[in-house]
Amino acid sequence: MNEFISVIRNRDLTDRVVFNAVWFQTLWFACVLGRDVWLPLALLLVALHLLLVKSTVRELRRLAPVILIGVTVDTALSVSGVFDFGDGVVLPLWLMLVWFAFATTLSRSLAYLGKHLWLAAVAGAAAVPFNYWVGSQAGAVALPLGTATTLWILVPVWAALLPLLFWISRRSALTGDYL
């Protein structure tokens, strides 16, 4: 088994664009559609990623700033009433796992967006709010302010946030500076 994992690590499987995109989407669906019920699958996918990277410690240090910022932003949106996850939960564990997975995409399957920060801003404004809407349609999150108002809030937040996250991800990957 250890030999198999060594072969996978040496081939940088987790750095492959297609592998990362499929892995992220699988985790996203497990978290958003399955939430707490499919949490074991999501945790298994995170463990798989950490098992396959060359250095778990380096990977966690590289991803930590993006995860921390993302969790902080979503927590602020939840506390301010933009999101409601039910049962008094400010931010569910499954959403934190989505942030972990999303952080991996910035230097892998979505890396091309980070080369042009204006493109990241456009993609952030267009795609990310749509994902929150999809989550609301799946019952993962309620939008107490209504869809239109929530989108008006999320569009500028993500137009600014996604380029920032790419910048932080690139900086931590290249320099080892983590904030």
UniProtKB/TrEMBL annotation:
**Does the keyword Transmembrane helix feature in the UniProt annotation?**
yes
Q: What Pfam families does the entry give?
A: DUF2878 (PF11086)
Report the transmembrane regions from the record.
Answer: 27-51, 89-110, 117-135, 141-168
Domain of life the protein comes from? Bacteria
User: Keywords, A to Z?
Assistant: Membrane, Transmembrane, Transmembrane helix
**rRNA-binding keyword on record:** no
Can you name this protein? DUF2878 domain-containing protein
Q: Which species?
A: Luminiphilus syltensis NOR5-1B
